[in-house]
Amino acid sequence: MLSRSASSLFWLGRHVERADFMARLMEAAYRFETLPQPDKNSGWASAVKSSGTAELFDAKDVPPNRDAVTQFLALDPDNPSSIRSCVMKARNDARIVRAALTREAFETLNQGYIELSERISQKGRPVDMVNLVDRVKQEVRNFEGAIWRTLVRGENFWFIRLGTLVERADNTARLLDVKYHTLLPEGESVGGALDQAQWTAVLRSVSAVTAYRHIYRQNLKPWLIADLLILREDLPRSLCHCMEITNEYLQDLRAAHGRVGPADRLAKSILMDLRRTDVDEIYKKGLHEFLQSFINDNNRLSRQIGEQFSF
After folding, report:
1. How many domains does the chain have?
2. Cβ(8)–Cβ(155) under 8 Å?
3. Contact 306, 9 (CB under 8 A)
4. Using CA atoms, how far apart are residues 202 and 204, in angstroms rounded to an integer?
């Protein structure tokens, strides 16, 4: 496979997953806005921080309210992580590797691009952001379904899924870190009604409310949510699961190419570190410090995948 094709497939997976995450961030922020708290904009400020684009937003010198943040996260062409930017990049990636995708996968992605373009082009009419969030999530599910149901299990599939998993792990870590530090107002008790409602919104943003209730069968507790989103290998969006499946796809590529590189060693090291720890140790060392270390390692893994496969 040409390195350019491998790069396009990898970033196709990342861009589609990032568009989905931005939609989920906005959905969570809409829920935070309805909660009884003194600062109605705290959820929107946290959404910007969780997106990893806080510096870009701060440079605009506008307050982090609903209108400004939704425009920034959804439609801002200057934000490389906005839904608009991610969908356009994903479509460009898909066009480069059109022959590597099935008709169903490409048409699903292309339809999402066309629909988003039509929404943006309707000048004089504001974009219905709530409906946009729902449509983006649906189109991402459709694309993933097409990939799973129609694509041959080979290099094309493996590189797309590698991009998806690296991006998903980064997103889960950022979301958990921002909630831990910024959302609970002063004077509110940990475990109180507001804290419980916020954690529920976080779990809903990663589709994990039912999973939490099924596994733990008790009220929401921050350390159990951290355990679920970090260490549970049976949760599709947990850090441990993402690293486990990343290792499996790297192993598949290793078997196909017959060589081991720095990405293989780093992915295995990250997974082993996750498996050796527990939530008590994470909290003892500091959840924020743990998550920042993971985000840095995950970013390094993304770079090493590119270096190992020359893209």
Report:
1. 1
2. no
3. no
4. 5
